[in-house]
Amino acid sequence: MAWRIITRSNLQRCAQKRFVIGVRHLSASEMETTSQELAGSPINPVSVAIADFKEVTSTAFARPFAAVEGFNPSLPHPANPSVAAGFVPPDVAPDVAKCDMHPGVPKKETGQLESVIDDDGRDPVARPSAWPWCVQGKMFMTFPDGARFIGSGTLVNRHHVLTAGHCIYSHRNGGWATRVEFIPAMRFASRPFGSSLATRLVSVAGWTDRNPPLRAHDIGMLILDQNIGDVCGHFGVVTTENNSLLLGRRVNVTGYPGDLDRGRVMYTMADAIKRVQADELNYFIDTFGGQSGSGVWSHWSGHPGFHVCGVHVRGVGRAPDNDNDSTRITRVKFDRIVEWMNQW
Known about the structure:
Elements: E1 13-15, E2 19-20, E3 33-37, E4 51-56, E5 62-68, E6 110-112, E7 123-124, E8 136-142, E9 148-157, E10 160-163, E11 169-170, E12 175-176, E13 179-184, E14 196-204, H1 205-208, E15 220-224, H2 229-232, E16 236-239, E17 250-255, E18 267-276, E19 280-283, E20 295-298, E21 307-314, E22 324-328, H3 331-343
Parallel strand pairs: 2-18, 16-21
Antiparallel strand pairs: 1-6, 3-14, 4-5, 5-16, 7-18, 8-9, 8-13, 9-10, 10-15, 11-12, 13-14, 14-15, 17-18, 17-20, 18-19, 19-22, 20-21, 21-22
């Protein structure tokens, strides 16, 4: 099911197991950039620096990652904010009460075929304008056939929003969205940072040029009409080929589910990644239509701020695993994301 706006519940149950699946290399043609320019005035691209850093694990190992950075409001503004140092101004108050980032085991080892698996573990975010919630936003998308949907996205640079490919391109609805609005920290009618329109939509050929599209390529980016990330901040992006550093890692999925408060309130939930696949991360985090595009984010010890390691794309558990899924940010996807931020 390409769209997460409408979901169905099934009652089948089965036992779950955690495991890791080996990496499959995507073809170069599948990962070619595709994009669509929309109305509006483009602004200058950023210059992105990739940081190779190491996380110290509980066994005292140092394991490599690659990342583009984020910026916490409690830290000084970087000297050059265009170097993808995710950033929130000092006047944005922190509120990290629900950011449970400690490693752990998955919430459930059994589940059912629906977005909300067993008991609903999602919590409303009372202060979405506070750090780190303020980098999350609601999206309104309009397509060529007139269809309108809601989705979610995460700021990962000054005017760059990481989201799901199906939030911006749908074969069923005529191709590229014709209008996408992004509203960070929205709560009911409140828009504390205003809103931005996308001037360009970006994805990869494996999603836009294949029908049906390839699930592994369900990723996209909004290029906004203003540097709204200078106002409300943004996360960094991280990738690692070491599956063991992802399996069991506690992550957050934060967005705007349509089944609660009519999609007008930000909800979040933290849980451990229970399964790592070549191009997917799987978990029992409860989701619903409208949360597609939410960044899967966590804190990586030894490194400041928060980073996105995946994009939530499928909110309905599927047999035989009955879990909810994100597109994993592999190294090739990471390089594309950096390329997009450098180009636009």
